[in-house]
Amino acid sequence: xxxxxxxxxxxxxxxxxxxxxxxxxxxxxxxxxxxxxxxxxxxxxxxxxxxxxxxxxxxxxxxxxxxxxxxxxxxxxxxxxxxxxxxxxxxxxxxxxxxxxxxxxxxxxxxxxxxxxxxxxxxxxxxxxxxxxxxxxxxxxxxxxxxxxxxxxxxxxxxxxxxxxxxxxxxxxxxxxxxxxxxxxxxxxxxxxxxxxxxxxxxxxxxxxxxxxxxxxxxxxxxxxxxxxxxxxxxxxxxxxxxxxxxxxxxxxxxxxxxxxxxxxxxxxxxxxxxxxxxxxxxxxxxxxxxxxxxxxxxxxxxxxxxxxxxxxxxxxxxxxxxxxxxxxxxxxxxxxxxxxxxxxxxxxxxxxxxxxxxxxxxxxxxxxxxxx
Length: 373
Ligand SMILES: Cc1cc2nc3c(=O)[nH]c(=O)nc-3n(C[C@H](O)[C@H](O)[C@H](O)COP(=O)(O)OP(=O)(O)OC[C@H]3O[C@@H](n4cnc5c(N)ncnc54)[C@H](O)[C@@H]3O)c2cc1C
Known about the structure:
CATH class of the largest domain: Alpha Beta
Number of strands: 21
CATH architecture of the largest domain: 3-Layer(bba) Sandwich
Bound molecules: flavin-adenine dinucleotide
Low-confidence stretches: 355-373
């Protein structure tokens, strides 16, 4: 968002209590898979499709403006079935996708294994969706930061925002480094959104949902070419010879610790779909708190309690996929462009009422979805 706002000529300062990208985003698998993540034809499905459509240009712009390489590929997903229940689900998805004109192929277990030889012999069927892909969330965040600086954005790390309140001159932003004044504030503090005090109102409810993700290294290179998705885990092949295996979904509050149970569960699930997993090297585990909402949809829109306060949070499992779209929606709102109808389903209004736009901006919280976007 900061990058997009900066490109549109606004003076932007990002306030981040850690360093850029060290929230949920550092743990993200970076998958771009709207047709698996979202219920058919629902609001998240429509959001995901729009997010994916923007990705090629978004990555090209960021790489162009930063000069940094970003791992990005539209390698497709292969979602596998190993029992009757998952097969029925794949068949339903395949017919819904075909009806929606989305390119996909339902293949037999033998064809899936011919395509990805390391898949388990238990695979009885698979759904291929070629438009899906992945992006390196960490390198993308670093490149976004560099690109944002080049369009005039400033960053204040280790700066915690405690309170936001309206004044006649704009919004007063209370930080541990003293107060600041801003024409507009975009609050994108992820799972910690509720911890920022809002004068005369309460921020919409965002809840932390822990996710643990493993990184495995394969000396001979990843044993697959596409993102594999099973009922127990997903496996993302990376160009650097590693794979990401994710992810747990845990309701444990603000606990960002990795657990043996989490790691074990993911290794078991990976072994089930890719038996060669036993030969991989264990590179590490990452943990992040996904910002969840009551309806699994992000919250993007104006606060009714504090004029000039814009929320952009609650991206739950799809913050990386929705980064370019969120950046565009937020910049359009700040610059008073005609609001996109999709915002009706995302408005804090479902938790709160909306307000009027203006010119300069500060962004609280920093990473792909909050910086871009
Ligand atoms: C294991 C895992 C796998 C995932 N895989 C995918 C995937 O494949 N594809 C996908 O699209 N998404 C994925 N996600 C989801 C995605 O990572 C999140 O939706 C996204 O990162 C959320 O971004 P955010 O900016 O809202 O939150 P965060 O990344 O958490 O950023 C919020 C920032 O705000 C800062 N902050 C908080 N409070 C304050 C304050 N008071 N003052 C200043 N700064 C503050 C925090 O330090 C943090 O840096 C995954 C998440 C996890 C955990």
